[in-house]
Specification:
alpha+beta, six-stranded mixed beta sheet, five-stranded mixed beta sheet, 16 helices
Length: 481
């Protein structure tokens, strides 16, 4: 009965639209104390027609998480939010799939999954699942290219038990053989079926050609490598990277800060600091040579990636905001982008079209891609048009009205990335993880607003290279124009 009551509470909160929303999700009226507020209407706004009212600009003032460090070196970002009886933890671990051994590509991902599904030394997998389900709680583990993640979601009344389970999963995963074998078989089945999706094919081979198969960014798992992963491999991966001084936690919800810190010291007691051995990640010195690459797939449409190296992020990267605005104008803003308007709307050459600038890579440059899925008999025509639009971005300044439309769109959508206290705390943690200044988020919208026509043109000339394209097309060339 208690289990049912807990789920009813969580379900009700979610259905009411408040499970993960700060007070800022309430109507934007002056006099509020939330992070996003509008100034009062001129003259008080009482009894006036809408056309007679004026408002101050929307201001972005998110609450600031409090930073603490535990005795074992674990860094905390704490943001109390007593609006709802919920408790959330998100972790960043300095690791990533870039540290896969070259003969066991996929190990990091398998390790992260089995950390959760394999239970802990003291908890069988089914018992762990039942324990979490009885509290309407969840614990999840994940991994990205350049960092690992872990999360806990629970009701505030279950903070003690939730933290104890969360710490147990992080510290003491069992990597049981049956769960490891199941995860390996799932990975192998995914490898066998990965050529069913043309976007998966083109993305995989584009990265392999761009970075080369001797670089982690160009690797992809193969059946032989996955089959070679024994229980010792994920255990060794975990033992190498999962230490408290290599972990950051953002914690939000209905808690008392001082009491919570004492609870954390208790559940992580005995987990000692350690030096982490990071494998060397090779630096890419030379860009990939321009090339056109064809992969047969008997479809009546062609999936195309055209691109090259993008940017390598750093806290002091000078052109970040100009690059973002430039790429939004070109192809990242959906139906307002040039690629969508020209290739799809005006010429009818593509089902989907756009551009993607990977801004999340710090060890090496990310990818910049113009992509399209077009009729097979219009393949060359679509490619030529996309190249022409890219060249035009480099050669002619954008009209002021087009620039302002895109900047307004970016600025107006910015606050929706910070609708919950959990999002705010996690973003601040991620910025610190990357070494950004504390006021980076506060100044983002101002920096977008400052981007000029000349800035966009300079960014296009500097970061778009139509003469250096790696082009990958997946389709049936018997139908190509």
């Amino acid at each position: 009965m208690k289990k049912l009551q807990r789920w009813i509470v969580v379900f009700t909160l979610i259905c009411c639209g408040g499970a993960w929303i700060l007070p800022s999700a309430t109507p934007l009226v002056y006099g509020g104390n939330d992070g996003y507020s509008l100034g009062p209407p001129a003259g008080g706004g009482v009894g006036r027609l809408p056309k007679e009212l004026t408002f101050e600009s929307l201001k972005f003032n998110p609450p600031k998480p409090e930073k603490r460090i535990l005795s074992n070196g674990m860094t905390l970002y704490l943001l109390e939010d007593h609006e709802l009886p919920l408790f959330n933890v998100q972790a960043l671990i300095e690791t990533g799939t870039i540290y896969d051994p070259p003969d066991k590509v996929g190990l990091a991902s398998i390790c992260a999954d089995v950390m959760r599904t394999g239970g802990t030394v003291s908890r069988e997998p089914d018992a762990l699942n039942e324990e979490l389900e009885s509290m309407a709680a969840s614990v999840e583990i994940g991994i990205d290219r350049e960092y690992g993640t872990a999360s806990l979601s629970a009701l505030a009344e279950d903070i003690d038990k939730g933290l104890e389970i969360f710490a147990d999963v992080l510290r003491n995963p069992a990597f049981r053989q049956d769960k490891l074998e199941l995860r390996k078989q799932q990975e192998i089945e995914g490898i066998r079926r990965r050529n069913d999706n043309p976007f998966g094919i083109v993305s995989r081979y584009f990265s392999a050609i761009l970075y080369g198969t001797n670089h982690p960014f160009g690797w992809y798992p193969e059946i032989e490598g996955v089959e070679s992963i024994t229980a010792d491999a994920p255990k060794a991966f975990h033992a190498n990277y999962y230490y408290p001084n290599n972990i950051m936690l953002s914690i939000t919800g209905d808690f008392n800060t001082e009491k919570l810190i004492a609870q954390l010291e208790k559940v992580f007691a005995g987990w000692e600091k350690a030096d982490v051995n990071f494998s060397d990640v090779p630096k890419i010195e030379e860009p990939a040579k321009p090339s056109v690459n064809y992969i047969f797939k008997d479809f009546n449409q062609t999936t195309i990636f055209m691109g090259h190296f993008g940017i390598q992020r750093a806290p002091d990267f000078p052109d970040y905001f100009s690059v973002i605005v430039m790429n939004e104008i070109l192809g990242a803003s959906g139906f307002t982008s040039r690629l969508m308007r020209e290739v799809r709307d005006q010429r009818g050459l593509a089902y989907s079209v756009g551009s993607f600038m990977d801004t999340s890579r710090y060890t090496n440059p990310g990818r910049w891609i113009a992509y399209s899925q077009t009729r097979a008999d219009k393949t060359a025509e679509a490619m030529a048009l996309i190249l022409g639009i890219i060249k035009d971005m480099r050669e002619h300044p954008v009209p002021e009205a087009e620039l302002q439309l895109i900047k307004d769109s970016i600025i107006n959508s910015f606050v929706f990335s910070f609708e919950s206290s959990a999002q705010i705390a996690f973003q601040q943690m991620m910025l610190d993880y990357r070494g950004y200044p504390p006021d980076f988020l506060d100044t983002c919208t101002d920096n977008i607003a400052k981007v000029t026509v000349d800035d966009v043109l300079d960014a296009a000339k500097k970061y778009l290279h139509p003469d250096q394209m790696v082009i990958v097309a997946v389709g049936n060339r018997d139908h190509f124009d």
